[in-house]
Each structure stands twice: as C-alpha cells, then as structure tokens.
Amino acid sequence: MLNTYRTVADFGQDEIIIEKSTFIGYAKPVTSEEEAQAFIQEIKKKHRDATHNVPAYVLGEHNDVQRCNDDGEPSGTAGVPVLEVIRKEDLRDVAVVVTRYFGGIKLGTGGLVRAYTKGAKIALEAAGIITKVLYQTVIVSVDYTMLGNLQNLLKLHNYDTKDIVYEDIVHLHVWVEIEDTAHFKDLIVEWTNGRAIITDGEIDYKII
To answer: Domain 131-207, what fold?
Structure first.
C-alpha cells in the first residue's frame, strides 16, 4: 500500500461553453475497472443525445491501469488530453468523462485539445482533489479517570481520535502515521504510567 496518494473526494460535475459547444466534465473516485466502466456508461446513458462522451481513468497504486477513448473525436484530441490532466495531477483511482454538445463551430485540433483539457480540469476541481495518507489506528484502552487528561495530551500533540468506545473501560481509536507508531506507543506508556492497554487496530487511509 502506498503511504500517500492523491485522488478525488467525491463525485463532481461542472460545465463550460467554448465557441458555442457545451462541455460538461464529470469526475468520480473509483476502485476498479468495473466501477469505472459503470460510471462511464451512466454518463453516456444520461447524455445519449450528446455529440461525444469522452472517458479516461487511472487505477492502481502505480497507475497500473490507464485508459482513454476519443469517442469519435479526431485521434488524440480528446481522450488523451483528459487522461493527461489526471496524470499531471498525479491522481489515482479516478474516472473522468467530458461530454460535448456541438455548437456548430469547429474548434480544430488545438482547440479540441484545450477544450477537453479544460473540461477535465473543471471536473476534477468540482470533485475536489485530496491527499490520502496511510495511518495505523492504535487503540488505547484506559480507565475513565484517565480519559480527560489523555484526551488533552492527544490534542496537544496533534493526534486525532477516530472513535471512542465506552465500555467498562474507555477505548480510544487514534490515527497514527505508520512511521510514528512506535514513538506514539512510548508516549502513551509515559502519559499513563504504563496503565494503558495498547493494541493495533486497522490500517487505513486518512484524508489530510
């Protein structure tokens, strides 16, 4: 798993008019080719009357899967520019579709490249580009009498609590960067005089 990567936060949509042609950009986070294709088909169905629906997507830790299609536009003027926007932003697990309704004015090769580039950019901006960092959840279990002080120390040292489970004792699920795990556990031992139970939770990505 990558320690950090960039993707989009959610579904996003925006549009722009260039020389009377309407370009509608869509972007969405995806985790598989099946999911990417389903999203593309959804947009194509929504805009079945459009002149073109140009898709591109990038998947995998190392951008293992990269696909694009010009959907009838001159070769290299649509799909590749959309894919290049994703790649230049160094995004992973993202699908983009730029829909075009032709307005009667031909844009030429350079114009098409610029238009589809812009359509992809506004889609990604609308979806919100985010950075995800791999974190270890460390579960710190303490007596209720220690809770307030421990929460203050966590806040003071900029550790975020993911969840708190109240049982016979309190279990704090704390986000900790992978490389900081050992140091964090030492701090907990120090802060609680060794009275905390420390266990490893799940490893997951956190948006920063």
So the answer is: Alpha-Beta Plaits (3.30.70)
